[in-house]
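User: Need the bound-state model for 6-diazenyl-5-OXO-L-norleucine:
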Amino acid sequence: MLQRKTLILILITYIGLLNGCRQQTSYQGYSSQKVAVSDQAMVVAAHPLAVQAGIEVLEKGGNAVDAAVAIQFALAVVYPRAGNIGGGGFMLYDEIGGKTVALDFREKAPLAANKDMYLDAQGNPIGGLSTKGALAVGVPGSVDGLLLALEKFGKLKDRKLVMKSAIDMARQGFAISSKEAERLNKFADDFKTLNPYDFPFVKEGDWAKGDLLIQTKLAQTLTDIQLKGRDGFYTGACAAAILKTMKTSGGIIEQKDLTQYSSKWKTPIQFDYQGYQVNSMPLPSSGGLVLKQVLKILEPYDLDSLGFQTAESIHLISEAERAAYEVRAKYMGDEDFYDVPTAQLLSDEYIKTLAEGIDLAKASPSQVTPHTHTKTLESFQTTHTSIIDKQGNSLSLTTTLNSNYGSKLYVKEAGFFLNNEMDDFSVKPGVPNTYGLVGAKANEIAPEKRMLSSMTPSIVKKDKKAFLVLGAPGGSTIITAVLQVLLNVIDYKQNIEQAVNSCRTHHQWLPDQITIEKGCLSTEVRNALTAKGHTLKETNYMAIIKAIHRTENGTLTGVGDRRNPDDHAQGL
Ligand code: DON
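Assistant: Bound-state model below.
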C-alpha cells in the first residue's frame, strides 16, 4: 500500500516536473521579428514574449484593448527596464464606428510633495534627488489605467485571461535577452545600493543572455491584481509593501495617495494634416500639442521638393521644432493645476505667428540663459505598443518608468521597480531634467499634479479608418520621432519600414542644437547646416518607434524599430 502511494507520488512529481520544464522552455526560446504583414490583425511591442501574450488574447476573441492589457502586464515581467506596474502612461483608442478616446494614467505628485522639494537651502537642485531613490517616485497609475481601459473598452474584460501569461512568466521565469542582460549589468551597483538585500535582479557575477529571471513576488502581486482588480495594487499587501519601501527609503507616498489615484479620460488632440486626421495625446503630455504645432508650421511647404534630409528641409523642420519646444517649456503643464492657454496654443493664428518667426536662411538662436546638457539619450526606458485588431479597432499605448528601471528602488515584498517620473516636473525654472528639457511655472511641482510628458501615442486616420498607429519611447525625442515617421510616410512617400528605420534628427529649443543620429546626413549637408548657424551634436540613436501601417485594401504592416533588438511585430 505504502509502495503504491510512493509510486503515485513519484509519478505525479515526474509529470509536474515535465510540465514545468515544458512551460519554461516556451519562455526561453524566442526571437524577434522586425516586420510582419497580415490582413487580419497586428501587434507591435517591445518584446516578443509580450507580443505573444497579446496575440493569444486576440486569438481567444479579445479586442485591441484586451490584448494591450495582456501585453502591458507581460512587459512588466519580461521588459522590467520599462514595462511596469510601478509607473504610468497614456493610451489612445480608436473604436471602429465609435470615437477616439484618450486615457491618462500618468503618475501624480504625492500629497506631501512641494515645489522646492529637490532644492537645497540656497535654492539649488540637489543632484540625483529627482532621479534616483524614494523621493523620485510619483504615485503609480499603470494598474488603475489598464484595468479601467479593460472594463470600459475590453471585449472579453477577463482579468483571468489577460493576466495569465504575465503571471506564468513571472512565476516560471523567462530567458532574458542580451539587451536586458546588458542593462541589468549596467545598473547593478545602483540596484545594490538602493536595495541592500537579495532580490531577483542582483546576482553574483554578470547577467548573460538566456539567464532565467524568476519573479515570484511579482507573480503574487499580479495574482492579487487578477483576483481583486485595482485593490490588489492600491490597497492590501501590495500597498503595504509600497508604503514600507517608502518608509525605509525616505519616500513620501502614503496610503491616501494610492487610494486616491485615478486615471482620467481625455479628448485627444485632433487635427488634419495633408488630408489625414491626426489623433494624439493631450496634456499632461505635450506630445499632441507639439506635434500639431510643428506639422501645421510645415504644412504649407512642399517638403518633398525641398528634398529628404537636405540642409533646407532639416533647417526648416528644426526651426519648427525649436519654436514648438519653446512653447512647451514656457506654457505647458497639467491643465488641472495651471491655466494653460491650450486653445490659443493650438489656434491657427498662434501657429502662424510661430511660423512667421522662422528665417529660412539662418538659425534663430534660442534666447535664454546658456544651458548645457551633454548626456546622450538611449531610448529603452519607456515602452510603446501599437495594435490593430480584426474588427479594425486601433490602439496606441505608451507606458514608462521614466529612466531604466525607474528610480531603481524595488518594492521588496511586492516584486517591482518604482518609477522616477517626478524628474519630468520642472524642479526649478530653467534647470534641465534628464532629457535636457526645461520648464516653467506651468510644470512646477504641486501635490497631486501630473508631470508634463513627451509621450506621443498617436493614431492617424484616413477615411475614418486607422492609417498609421505609432508611438515610441525616447524622452524628449519621442515627439520628433513620431513627427518624422509621419513626414516620411505622408510627404516623402516612404514605405513604413523605411519610414521607421530612416535616421533622425531632433531639436528641442534648449539645448540649442540639432541632435543627429550617428551616420545620418552627409558632410555636405552638415556643413550647410553649420553655415546656417546650427550646432550639430551626434548621438547613437533616438526614440524607438513601433508602427502599424494600413493600406487602402486593409493589409497591415507592423514594424518594430531596428534601434531596439527586442522590438517585435507579429500579425494574426
Ligand atoms: O513622459 C515622458 O516624457 C518621459 N518620462 C518618457 C521617458 C522615456 O521615454 C524614456 N525612454 N527613453
